[in-house]
Design goal:
It comes from Simkania negevensis (strain ATCC VR-1471 / DSM 27360 / Z). The chain has 140 residues and is mostly helical. It is 42% helix and 9% strand.
């Protein structure tokens, strides 16, 4: 799930449990109309599970600043967040992603457990839950 700065989902996909989530980021980003964001700073924040050199290069080629912490691997140097973002104020916002998942689970209890056997039905329920969350957040 990709979210905006307010915690609203802007792109979502569902995969099987053994899928590579790093691959899904590139698929989700290619679906978004990023041409409308030209001239603006776009930051993609993710957790350590998305630490991959090819993903960082892919994001930079798209004009997106990757704010992804490096995994602690013995013998490998990794910069701290204040070293990377010393030119501008940027603080971790991972809690917004967790809040978006909590909104989906709380407002759409059907998404807590996957009972549907057909992927099309499950994906439709997930998208319906995202639309409901958007409407709820916009209306209040």
């Amino acid at each position: 799930m990709l979210i905006d700065k307010n915690g609203n989902a802007i792109a979502i996909t569902t995969t099987d449990a053994k899928g590579d989530e790093k691959q899904e980021v590139s698929r989700l980003l290619t679906q978004l109309p990023l041409k409308s964001l030209k001239g603006r700073v776009v930051v993609l924040e993710a957790d350590k599970g998305y630490d991959a050199g090819w993903l960082r290069q892919f994001l930079l080629n798209m004009g997106i600043f990757p704010l992804i912490p490096y995994r602690k691997i013995k013998g490998r140097w990794a910069p701290e967040i204040n070293e990377v973002t010393h030119f501008f104020k940027l603080s971790p916002q991972r809690w917004k992603v967790e809040r978006a998942f909590a909104w989906l689970k709380r407002r759409c209890r059907r998404l807590l457990m996957r009972w549907e056997r057909l992927f099309v039905i499950w994906n439709g329920l997930v998208i319906l839950g995202v639309v409901y969350t958007w409407i709820k957040n916009l209306v209040g």
